[in-house]
Amino acid sequence: MPAQSETGNSRLVKSLLGVVVAAIAVYAGWNLLAPPPPQVDVAYNTVSADGLYQLMFETDVEPIPVGQTHSWVLTLTTPDGAPVTDATIRVDGGMPAHGHGLPTAPQVSTNPGEGRYRIEGMRFNMGGHWEIRIAISAPPGDDAAVFNIEL
Question: Which domain holds residue 66?
Fold first, then answer.
């Protein structure tokens, strides 16, 4: 009798192993045939969601560093290129794939004019895909924009 029990257990293990191997093969095949992910725009300029503003940023260090606090200068204009000098800017962001925000709370420190706003406290604690969300409140209207950063 014990010999039959071992044979039954052996068949069960082989069957389960076959199911696992088949599942891995299907998963691998799906990934090989799946379309590539969409390209993410990582430009340092963008248009706000409702088209009220054109935004561009520059950093005080290039490339954008990991683990180092630095600042940005955000230039904000209307679509026709006129500087927006009296805006309230809020900065937020994070890593969408990881579900966490920025490790700092960046804020506008100065407004040197001509639509430029100095943002202090930018820091990224790891490499990967980051989104920086900019909320704008100014006379043309409230709007928002997103910069995609790949580090």
Answer: 45-150
